[in-house]
Predict the structure.
Amino acid sequence: MARAETKDEKYLVVDHLIKWFGSDRAVDDVSFSIEKGKFLTLLGPSGCGKTTTLMSIAGLHTIDSGEIRVGDVIYTSKEKKIFLAPEKRDIGMVFQSYAIWPHMTVAQNVAYPLEIRKIERVEIDERVDKVLALVGLTEMSDKLATQLSGGQQQRASLARAIVSNPLLLLFDEPLSNLDLKLREQMRVELKRIQNEVGITSIYVTHDQSEALVMSDEIIVMSKGQIEQRDIPLSVYSKPANGYVSQFIGVANLIEGTLAKKNKSGTGVADLNKTIKGLTCDCVLSSELESGDDVLVSIRPENISVSKKNTGGKGIKGKVDLAIFLGNCVDCRISSDGFEWKVLSHPRENLQQGDSVFLHLDPKHTLAVTP
Ligand SMILES: Nc1ncnc2c1ncn2[C@@H]1O[C@H](COP(=O)(O)OP(=O)(O)OP(=O)(O)O)[C@@H](O)[C@H]1O
Ligand SMILES: [Mg+2]
């Protein structure tokens, strides 16, 4: 087994990875690294290359260009003609399908990776007991895998993946077969366990809320390429471009041009082509220049709405729809042919048909590359 002695800062390195399937470039020059013990999520729509990236790390795909290494150990390098067999990579994997053996008990399933490593029985039993306790399956250890619920089977898969204390844990949409409530529970549970065992993890999902809840960092992918890598809060509040802004959460996206660029990373966007006469102060997310086309992105919770035009600078609108959600009211407000999505406080008591004024906060009004 290839054990890597490594400095903490760059544990796994994926360097200019390219993978073709026929004429389809499934992974198109992807580079990233991850620190030891961190939880990194690859997030993106179906077909963007998440699984292919993961499989390339696991050695279940050969690659067409680039290098993958953990510490000083090169797993794959096209240029150096190195390919370490998957079983030598010391990686634990948890997939969408539970992939535990139906003819074995839970304890036997979990013990299996240790048996093939020819570890002594006493130690195997000890380690199996420990991880089963960690994932909350102690009571189930003698049950056949088929007697478990979906959530329990996924816990058993996780126990089997971590029992040998691998260098890396790879997850490919492990929660997507579970119903919504269980999925939400398991997110937190999985994160707790990963924290406790401290194994460096890469998690693949197309579910943005899963990514936001669980990750230390998120890589947003599209069409085989990385669009943005950042901490969850920044991916949400400072999307690098229109694609990320649309993919993560809900945003009002307004096309315009950058009328003025200040020195401080702020500017003025002219949105006249979408909403007549509207300009707004904004923060610039990237290297935009005056005159550039921009997409202004404003989250619904960052627009304030009131029936009075406080300060005289509000955008006039009419409430088309107001849905009470308990802690907020989800509104659609039309203004010069544009429909704003706004989350208002219930105390504003907005009703369909009300005339209102919208106030944008320049700090939360972000101009991005379209
Ligand atoms: N074994 C394969 N043979 C041929 N093409 C493949 C193969 N695996 C993936 N592809 C193609 O590579 C691209 C990336 O696929 P990949 O499975 O990595 O996407 P994904 O991001 O994991 O999507 P999903 O969210 O649907 O699982 C897709 O266009 C897909 O059709
Ligand atoms: Mg996939």
Q: What stands out?
A: The first strand starts at residue 12 and ends at 21. Confidence is low (pLDDT under 50) at residues 3-7.
